[in-house]
Write a structure and sequence with these properties.
0% strand; mainly alpha; globular; disordered N terminus; 409 residues
Length: 409
């Protein structure tokens, strides 16, 4: 009888792995596009005329002096390679959750594979968010506490130099993973080390948020960038180098007050919100059942909901809502990893008989719900546009995407 149960369990897990893989691929293709010119323009920012935000990659290009790096083709392949790496690392986390053997945890991980977070991750290939996500996903693979601390300090410093939003998006969940691994015998020195890392990265983030160019320097940098690039730069993307934080917050407060924007945000939250709510509720229950320290009980919910803080700084509201699905999933994963016996998770989760059914409904909802993508793109490019264009070489209609980004010759 025992062998038969084990065989059934293995067959069930194989089916769940197959379902998760299918949904991961299907959901990614729902939002797959060519990397946007806005992101490609940001990749060419440099420190040529002084310290400024989002300029690490372009400065690296200047350092090595490789003309190929300034082409859209190079940006296309490099950003897609990073996207595939992130997708693989998210798949590894999903596999770990499926291996717990708890049906509710398994179905919730599969529900994430169908969520708006992965749709939008495919839509924003090339954006700086992917660098921060890669850093936190790699850090979760490092088991040694001090090695992980060093990795987070170094890589998140680079991620903040690539895009300062990574500080709010993914650093909280990375810090939560450190707090969760504090050793009771070395609690004070390890906590001090974590605090020092947070302070250093906070100072760097504040410095980058205020690093701007004056109009004359911005004009000179624009001319220099356009001479090197083989595509037309996005004019609005360049203006971010001369926009300070106070201006962004003032603009966002007016922007969020518009009724049409509020309706759009509510529609976006209706699509991504159920996944975030269910994952964060289960994470909070699991953290409480473990009798974790109060610091971790506060940090896990904050890390899962951190993308919503960017409502004050950037108008990519659909993007923040979708990213919350990813951070909530990572927070949920951390809470599951904290349990001593993952096979007995069902005794901690609320209404264990109902939760698997709720997760199944969430999977169906995520598969069927329309996901708001980048502004205006949803009206100009159908899903799978990048795949169709790549295979057939047909040009796509949106002017923000190059008609011939890849030179096949």
């Amino acid at each position: 009888m025992t062998l038969r149960i084990d065989a059934q369990s293995q067959r069930t897990q194989r089916f769940l792995f197959a379902a998760a893989a299918f949904l991961l691929l299907y959901t990614s293709l729902r939002g797959l596009y060519y990397p946007h010119i806005w992101a490609a323009t940001h990749s060419l920012f440099s420190y040529e005329f002084g310290l400024t935000k989002r300029s690490l990659i372009g400065s690296a290009y200047d350092l090595f002096g490789c003309s190929t790096c300034y082409s859209y083709s190079f940006f296309f392949y490099a950003s897609n390679l990073l996207y595939i790496a992130n997708l693989f690392l998210l798949w590894r986390i999903t596999c770990r959750l499926i291996k717990t053997g708890n049906l509710a945890v398994q179905l919730l991980s599969i529900a994430f594979c169908a969520s708006a977070g992965l749709v939008y991750l495919a839509t924003t290939i090339g954006w700086g968010d992917h660098a921060g996500l890669f850093c936190v996903l790699i850090s979760l693979q490092i088991r040694h506490f001090y090695w992980r601390c060093g990795f987070i300090l170094v890589t998140f410093s680079l991620a903040i130099l690539i895009h300062e939003a990574n500080y709010i998006l993914f650093l909280p969940v990375a810090v939560a993973s450190l707090i969760a691994d504090l050793n009771t015998e070395k609690f004070a020195p390890q906590l001090t080390l974590v605090i020092i890392i947070c302070v250093l990265l906070t100072l760097l983030s504040l410095a980058m948020a205020g690093a701007m160019l004056n109009p004359a320097e911005l004009e000179q940098l624009t001319i220099l960038m356009q001479e090197k690039a083989d595509f037309l730069l996005h004019p609005q993307a360049i203006k971010t180098l001369s926009t300070d934080t106070d201006t962004s917050v003032t603009f966002m407060l007016r922007y969020l007050a518009a009724p049409d924007v509020q309706k759009s945000v509510l529609r976006s939250l209706a699509v991504s919100g159920p996944t975030v709510i269910v994952l964060m509720t289960c994470a909070a229950v699991l953290i409480r059942s473990k009798q974790s320290p109060i610091l971790l009980r506060l940090l896990i919910p904050m890390s899962g909901l951190s993308p919503y803080f960017l409502y004050l700084f950037g108008y990519d509201l659909h993007r923040w809502n979708a990213m919350a699905c990813i951070t909530a999933f990572i927070a949920f994963y951390l809470s599951v990893e904290l349990q001593d016996n993952p096979s007995k998770l069902r005794q901690y989760l609320p209404t264990p008989k109902v939760l698997p059914a709720l997760a199944a409904l969430l999977i169906a909802f995520n598969m069927l719900a329309p996901v708001p993508l980048l502004q205006r793109d949803i009206d100009k490019n159908p899903p799978f546009a990048a795949v169709i264009a790549f295979i057939t070489e047909w040009p796509i209609s949106d002017d923000d995407f190059p008609r011939a980004p890849i030179n096949r010759n």
